[in-house]
């Protein structure tokens, strides 16, 4: 059976959400950060030691986009991906890759600069703050052009790849989404899906906030630091 290793409050939420949307059988192994990075049991699974990890027979694989594609094609009959014959195929591909190719690095980079104590008035940091705003406006504008989901009318794995960065990730980099008026209802639509709710029930503590509102949520890193 497919095994999904999920570290709470991390990118591996995508894989649990995907399996719930697809309604496939899988064995969920849960971990907690220790105290901020992966616990040893998760580190031991791969050379990189990050979440997510999936196992299927002899296969052990990390990288969320690869895990998503693997599960869709090996266990989901291609559901939640769009085929080349679909009119929105290019949109699907573009937004699927935009998630971890641009958006997620855009947030992580700013998170790292902030946690290294770099002042936001620093020229490099300022440039990256502006770039992240550009990334977000790009999504916002696309959703505002009548697209309920990133690939168009259909909910797809491109949404599963993207929502983590716009919600849970905000606990590490306290992003204010108030200016992005189309992103906010999009996030509400996403978290109302039964598949998302099942992921939350199985994979997160019930008091962990959804982070779908505009104002910047509490920054976990700062909280962690003040405890240390
Ligand atoms: N590009 C990778 C990134 C994986 C990654 O960095 N995961 C984080 C969780 S959000 C992690 O495992 N951090 C703990 C650590 O680095 O020890 C993916 O998409 O799977």
UniProtKB/TrEMBL annotation:
It comes from the Eukaryota. Belongs to the GST superfamily. Residues 85-210 form the GST C-terminal domain. It comes from Aureobasidium uvarum. Residues 1-79 form the GST N-terminal domain. InterPro entries: Glutathione-S-Trfase_C-like (IPR010987), Glutathione-S-Trfase_C_sf (IPR036282), Glutathione_S-Trfase (IPR040079), Glutathione_S-Trfase_N (IPR004045), Thioredoxin-like_sf (IPR036249). This is Glutathione S-transferase.
């Amino acid at each position: 059976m497919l095994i999904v290793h999920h570290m709470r409050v991390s990118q591996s939420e995508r894989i649990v959400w995907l399996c719930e949307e697809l309604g496939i059988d899988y064995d969920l192994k849960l971990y907690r950060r220790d105290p901020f990075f992966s616990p040893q049991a998760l580190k031991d699974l791969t050379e990189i030691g990050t979440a997510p990890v999936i196992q299927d027979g002899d296969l052990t694989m990390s990288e969320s986009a690869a895990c998503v594609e693997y599960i869709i094609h090996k266990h989901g009959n291609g559901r939640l991906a769009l085929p080349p014959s679909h009119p929105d195929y290019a949109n699907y591909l573009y937004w699927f890759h935009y998630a971890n190719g641009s958006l997620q690095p855009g947030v992580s980079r700013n998170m790292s600069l902030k946690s290294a104590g770099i002042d936001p008035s620093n020229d490099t940091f300022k440039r990256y703050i502006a770039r992240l705003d550009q990334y977000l406006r790009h999504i916002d504008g696309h959703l505002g052009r009548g697209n309920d989901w990133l690939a168009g009318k259909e909910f797809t794995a491109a949404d599963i790849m993207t929502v983590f960065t716009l919600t849970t990730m905000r606990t590490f980099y306290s992003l204010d989404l108030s200016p992005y008026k189309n992103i906010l209802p999009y996030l509400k639509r996403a978290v109302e899906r039964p598949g998302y709710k099942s992921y939350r029930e199985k994979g997160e503590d019930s008091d962990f906030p959804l982070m779908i509102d505009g104002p910047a949520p509490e920054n976990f890193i700062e909280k962690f630091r003040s405890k240390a």
